[in-house]
Amino acid sequence: MPDPTESSSRRLLVSLRETLAEPAAGQERLDRITSLIAEQMGTHVCSIYLFRDADTLELCATEGLNPDSVHKTRLRVGEGLVGRVAKTAHPINSGNAPQERGFRYMPETGEEIFSAFLGVPIQRLGERLGVLVVQSKDARQYSDDELYALEVVAMVLAEMTELGAFVGEGEALAALHQRPVMFQGTVGQEGVAVGHVWLHEPRVVVTNPIADDYETEMRRLHEAVDRLRVTVDEMLSAAPGGDKDQLQVLEAYRMFANSRGWKRRMEEDIARGLSAEAAVEKEQSAARARMQTVPDPYLRERLHDLDDLSNRLLRILTGQGEHTGAERPSDPILIARNIGPGELLDYGRSLRGIVLEEGSVGSHAAVVARALAIPLIVNAQRITTEALNGDPILVDGEQGIVHLRPEETVAVAFNDKIAMQAKAQQRYATIRKEPALTLCGQRVALHMNAGLMADLPSLESSGAEGVGLFRTELQFLIRSKVPKRSEVAALYARVMDAADGRRVVFRTLDIGSDKVLSYMKRQDEPNPALGWRAIRVGLDRPGVLRMQLQALIRAANGRPLSVMFPFVAQLDEFRTARDHLMREIDREGRLGRALPEKVEIGAMLETPSMAFSPRQFYEEADFISIGGNDLKQFFFAADRENERVRRRYDTLNVSFLSFLEQIVKRCEDTGTHLSFCGEDAGRPVEALCFAAIGLRCLSMRPASIGPVKHMLRRSNLAEARAVIDTARASGAQSVRPAIIDWLRRRD
After folding, report:
1. Mean of the per-residue pLDDT values for the chain?
2. Which of 519, 516, 515 minimizes the C-alpha distance to 241?
3. Lowest mean pLDDT, pick from 194-203, 316-325, 564-573, 612-621
4. 677 belongs to the catalytic site
């Protein structure tokens, strides 16, 4: 155990605590702190630079530089040595600063006479707040103890900044968590929402960064670490014995919880004057800083483990658990770094929207959000560090934009948009029971996608003619072990009951890629979307597939049954999967169970290879559903989770429409029922073009059925087809501009 030596950091922290305890305004406090640091460290200069915006630092207080330069001297991130510290989040310690790469001389500050430079980042859990600098005339390197002292003080400044201790005039001294902020993320589920923030994991606030008593803080740390170790051991004991991946994660947790180095570093921080909470957070900030620079995904994941473990330790120390006493707002929009499907289902439809700092469009959370029809934005970086419970928030799931604490003009415009959508929905309600019959007399069947029992009431309210896709994987994703056949059969039976005779197409398990079951061994694949997933898993591990097929047969109990196999890439895969189903039907018959009145066996066409499959595929499949989301990403070789490319290629690109038309023609030649399933089916302009090239069945989220039906009922498909053909003949890359222009002129 380290001794509580009277180091420069400890002496400085004691003096700093006394200074912070004195009543003063924000600017006065900063001025006192720079004077204190310069005096205690024996330096000629101490300066504090804080961010005034995401790219600009402002000199907010100084002892030793020209006082007239305060709030006037500004630097871009990366500019000069101060800007480099801010950009890299690493200290710079130089005995000859003017000779350092990137040094920038600022004449208004009068700093040309200072050679020695030591700058450290002011940051809290990866959030950059500013830079703390000391300088001296004599050319010398600052000692390790001086560097440590400045880092510790910088951390205390970050905590006090978070608590609003330095609020004053100007952008750089503006109070945190009060200004409007806009986040650009990725759309995980379309829709718009207005509400108030509800944090899935409320932020832990360290209110006492400086230790009052060394021995007390050391005892608190040891007791908290002991409790943490017991918790991790209990988690290990409760983990399923066959789940190697979960055990591996928990073993990593135990390794960190028992790490002598981790504990020793926190003990040293306490010995130098920090409280137990501040010591934990200092190590957590260091882990997050390393996380941002480590390219190896395995090491990044381990740093995530350490970050999570630090959060658990902080909650033990502060008593700030998940239940903080805050009242959940009546219009909650959930904010989280990430969240599992089971946790999200616990919230259910009470949520107005969801915003995640991490995640992907194909993650478990996105699958559940789509099933619940809750607007979802993923990859909204830094939102968990900026948002507070109760903050007003707007979620634009059409553009992937989040407005936190929006300005009045933004809120008014957003509410106008919602009012217009509500008015349109009222208009759509009047045609709910009407068919999607075009002006030229063509009828287009509109079906809905579902994945939960809670979706089924939308069959009636949306006007859907049936369920074109029931995602069966959700019931497997939210569990910690394979569900029982009887449970699965009971669920499927309830789905059929709720459909009340309308067609339900059950897609067998589409797992793998980014939808990994917690009890399934994760495969280390460089490109999971093209890897071992969906029907490939089912055919290689047929036990679960057979169980699911048995459950579907029993659920039908004499009623018609439609089964669709996902991600079929060649004819033999479809035939093998179909044979599995036929064998299970034969087996159930021998057991004396009621067999389906009629069985339809189909496939999702998600790989371009199946568009060129032998004619026998189209003849043998009772129906085919184009899986638009996957087919488009494979057709354009553009990962739909990669923001740099996913919006680069248009669904109404001439080449893609021609490709779809080829599939339509092959199905017409063999009399095979064809539908299009995916996000694009629910977009009115795209749906019109699909119908114009011959698609007569579309499956989409329930909320899209009204807008699509409204578009089709006032359109002539022959005219739309003529516009498409003209655009195609002209050499246009996409037919979208021509169709949009035609619609505008028509209206």
Report:
1. 86
2. 519
3. 316-325
4. yes
